[in-house]
Automatic annotation (TrEMBL):
Keyword Nucleotide-binding: yes
Domain Guanylate kinase-like stretches: 137-318
CDD domains noted in UniProt: GMPK (cd00071)
Family label: Belongs to the guanylate kinase family.
Organism: Rhynchospora breviuscula
Name of the molecule in the record: guanylate kinase
């Protein structure tokens, strides 16, 4: 673990930057962190708090600025921020004058996710991932053949636990059904547009399902996690496999029908597909049900009687009849307006307030244990432990 090179801290670094004369459009405070011969400059280009933090990368070997593709939701700038190199693949940014659930962000520069995206997109890539104190709720992936009742079960969960769950709205190239609303049920998209966006790395996963493209955008997952809710993904088995291979730590549930005859009946009774489409979905369901047995899933639910299946789903998610909070450990404080950073003997990050006055709700010292962080972009970096001294 190492500390950032603060602005004005290193004369040679400053020479490097001024020689390039390219960081001039950063307004206000900025930080510079050196990782493997590259300087990561983080600041706001539009000025003022609430404008997003941008990233520029200077390659010392070539003496050139690189314009990185920046993935993930950018944190808003604050008057002051500081970066700590946690490992050689990510920097932890700590924001001043910010609420407890808004002050920690990781900038991944060489994580598995970033390397994958570099391969896909070419060039320099970095990714923001918000830090969660405590474990935070794991996203839930629900898969199963078309017509088995995934959407029905998810709607029941969302209705009974509205402040606990949020639905990841997928993109699809299929035509909307009569009652489907763009942006709520799906983002309905043209095929060329979606293909382009897949190439640009906008999607966490995407797959060709029953002849149409479907995909979960990184933004769709982040839109839910940003509200502090637990994200539910309704995706096919190919998508579940891709999410399993990503850094997202999720719970994977496969929903099975009691029989093929019942599955066919449900698809027909739903009345949303043509005969040809029903036949295609039924053909695919045989393969999907076989794949559901392969150990990819943590739980298998048989949706025979709907109420019993829903009760089993709630049980495995640890839900009770009343709304329960699955939110990350709730800690309530505001970070100081200015602070210094040091690393203690246990490798914890120690944030000491440099504010002239002490104020209610603003700790004098915040100690962060980053030894158990998990997950990362896209979504949350979970498992940060915090202790506070007032
Ligand atoms: N346990 C059940 N018993 C009888 N009917 C059910 C049951 N569960 C769901 N259904 C009905 O089956 C039909 C299909 O359900 P639903 O649309 O939720 O399936 P799905 O798995 O989301 O399908 P798709 O993958 O095509 O979106 C709906 O008309 C729904 O009301
Ligand atoms: N891999 C993905 N599969 C998805 C996604 N969104 C939905 N789906 C799956 O597609 C089928 C068909 O859905 P329908 O709404 O046309 O009936 C179903 O199995 C869904 O689970 C996605 O983003 N990625």
């Amino acid at each position: 673990m190492g500390q950032e090179i603060q602005e004005n801290f290193s004369a040679s670094l400053h020479e490097n930057l001024s020689a390039c004369d390219d960081d001039s459009d950063f307004k206000g405070h900025k930080t510079i962190t050196e990782i493997c011969g590259k300087l990561y400059v983080v600041g706001a280009t539009s000025g003022g708090a609430e404008s997003p933090l941008d990233v520029k990368v200077f390659d010392k070997a070539t003496g050139k600025w690189l314009a990185p593709t920046i993935l993930g939701k950018k944190p808003n700038a604050s008057t002051f921020h500081s970066g700590v190199l946690v490992t050689n693949d990510r920097v932890l940014f700590l924001k001043a004058d910010s609420l407890a659930d808004e002050f920690l962000y990781f900038l991944e520069v060489d994580s598995k996710f970033v390397r994958e995206r570099k391969n896909l997109l070419g060039g320099e890539v970095v990714a923001w991932s918000k830090g969660s104190i405590g474990d935070g709720p794991k996203p839930i992936v629900i898969s199963g053949p078309s017509g088995v009742g995934k959407g029905t079960l998810i709607n029941m969960l969302m209705k009974d636990f509205p402040s606990t769950f949020g639905f990841s709205v997928s993109h699809t190239t299929r035509a909307p059904r009569e009652k489907e609303v763009n942006g709520i049920h799906y983002h309905f998209t043209e095929r060329e547009v979606m293909e382009k966006e897949i190439k640009e790395g906008k999607f966490l996963e995407s797959a060709l399902v029953h002849g149409n493209l479907y995909g979960t955008s990184v933004e769709a997952v982040e839109a839910v996690t940003d509200t502090g809710k637990r994200c539910i993904l309704d995706i096919d088995v190919q998508g579940a496999r891709s999410v399993r291979a990503s850094t997202i730590e999720a719970i994977f549930i496969f929903v099975r029908p009691p029989s093929f005859e019942e599955l066919e009946k449900r698809l027909r009774d739903r009345g949303t597909e043509t005969e040809e489409q029903i036949q295609k979905r039924l053909r695919n369901s045989r393969k999907e049900i076989e794949e559901g047995k392969e150990g990819l899933f943590d739980h298998i639910l048989v949706n025979d009687d709907l109420e019993s299946c829903y009760a089993n789903l709630k049980k495995l998610l640890g839900l009770h009849s009343m709304e329960t909070s699955n939110k990350a450990a709730s800690v309530d404080f505001r970070t100081p307006s200015s602070f210094s950073i040091s690393i203690d003997a246990e490798n914890n990050i120690v944030i000491d307030s440099q504010d002239a006055e002490t104020k209610d709700g603003i700790p004098k010292k915040i100690v962060l244990d980053v030894s158990s962080v998990r997950g990362g972009a896209p979504g949350r970096t979970r498992g940060l432990a915090v202790s506070i001294e007032y």
